[in-house]
Design goal:
The structure is a homodimer.
Chain A lengths: L1 H8 L2 H11 L3 E2 H5 L6 H13 L3 E6 L2 E6 L1 H15 L14
Helix pairs in contact in A: 1-4
The structure holds a DNA duplex (30 and 30 nucleotides).
Amino acid sequence: MENSVFKALAHPARRQLLALLRKGPRLAGDLAAEFEASWPTMSRHLAVLKEAELITAERQGNQILYRVNTSVLEDAATALLGLLGRDNGDDDLKEAAE
Amino acid sequence: MENSVFKALAHPARRQLLALLRKGPRLAGDLAAEFEASWPTMSRHLAVLKEAELITAERQGNQILYRVNTSVLEDAATALLGLLGRDNGDDDLKEAAE
DNA sequence: CTGCTAATTAGCAATTATGCTAATCTCTGG
DNA sequence: CCAGAGATTAGCATAATTGCTAATTAGCAG
């Protein structure tokens, strides 16, 4: 649901994870290494993001590759813009405001 | 801080408050009346939004008028779009909104 | 000052989030 | 099978959030 997305975005470490993934898919351990927090802690943050469907996981043999789920992030941004009462300007969103 | 903004957005009641305020400024009691939760509870949600500077409060005699702080909400939306790696081009935001 | 309405703050219980260490799982390679 | 790396899950303690009722503040009218 939408709510889990915003709750997932509420933690700075998770937003930073998304920022890292923005540049391309990365392995779990690779991501965890960028943070001060312990590996299990980062693993949990990744799980929260996955639960909100903000990221997807794919096993690559021994390791796990994460990537951003762009459309869900887009939906969240669109929801915020909707709160502004302004049109998004996104290609596939047409408003019916008169 | 940016973080308090996303934390404030994490609760559905607070996003709904913003949605109500999107259409124009409203009195605290007027807003509280729209929710099932008790008035003090809504008052606290308003305080969280104010703390994040997503809204501003203005006394009108006996009552308090709240309004959305558009720029902070814009910043949050922009931050999300930034996570998408796409350019939002809102330097000006003078796009003809409808 | 008293009383009244609008709204916030205090205090409390219950739930949820965070972050650690230890234990477990999954896969690869001998 | 066993050993090891990569990663998650379990369990626990602490902190933060949520939402209530009761108490309090702020302003207005008499």
